[in-house]
Design a protein that fits this description.
Largest sheet: 7 strands, mixed
GO molecular function: acyltransferase activity, transferring groups other than amino-acyl groups
Organism: Caryophanon tenue
Distance between the termini: 38 Å
InterPro entries: Acyl_CoA_acyltransferase (IPR016181), GNAT_dom (IPR000182)
CATH superfamily of one domain: Gcn5-related N-acetyltransferase (GNAT)
Protein name: N-acetyltransferase domain-containing protein
Order of helices and strands: EHEEEHEHEE
CATH class of one domain: Alpha Beta
Radius of gyration: 15 Å
Low-confidence stretches: none
Helix content: 10-25%
Structural class: alpha+beta
Mean pLDDT: 91
Number of strands: 7
Strand order of the largest sheet: 1-2-3-4-5-7-6
Number of helices: 3
CATH architecture of one domain: 3-Layer(aba) Sandwich
CATH topology of one domain: Aminopeptidase
């Protein structure tokens, strides 16, 4: 397994990325959703030149990075890939000077909610989105606290 980062996803990975996204979310990924995101960061898990997992994010405000979208192909789950991508993302963000990473989750996605909580995220807010879905806002501080 190879883990790679991009600021723009190479065309050679788009078809397999589309398959993973559709397997995870039940709908195709619109390439236009990946455009015009400030400081966009894409992390991909690649096996045999095919995307098997992904994690996308972008800057939402100075010092705050939004971990936006991610998923693991169902046949590759329970192998620690999501955690590996999360740790890689947080390491990159820390090296770039980000203070915090923010993500949203939903109660229906309990596995991801639990992974975030176990990885040091705190629940900081909730809201109802424009589609009427209840969202949970989680944040993790990336800066080490000076003692």
């Amino acid at each position: 397994m190879e883990y790679v980062q991009f600021h723009k996803i190479p065309e050679k990975y788009m078809a397999s990325l589309q398959r993973v996204h559709e397997n995870v979310f039940g709908e195709p990924l619109s390439p236009s959703k990946l455009q015009d995101r400030p400081q966009f960061l894409a992390l991909l898990a690649i096996e045999h030149e095919q995307v098997v997992a992904f994690k996308f994010g972008y800057e939402v405000e100075q010092g705050i990075f939004y971990s936006w979208l991610g998923g693991v192909d169902p046949t590759y789950r329970r192998q620690g890939i999501a955690i590996q991508l999360m740790n890689m993302q947080h390491s990159i963000l820390t090296s770039l000077g980000y203070e915090a990473v923010r993500t949203y989750s939903r109660n229906e996605r309990k596995e991801m909610l639990i992974v975030n909580l176990k990885s040091g995220f705190d629940i900081v807010d909730t809201f109802t989105d424009h589609k009427g879905r209840h969202k949970i806002v989680l944040e993790k501080c990336l800066k080490k606290v000076e003692s």
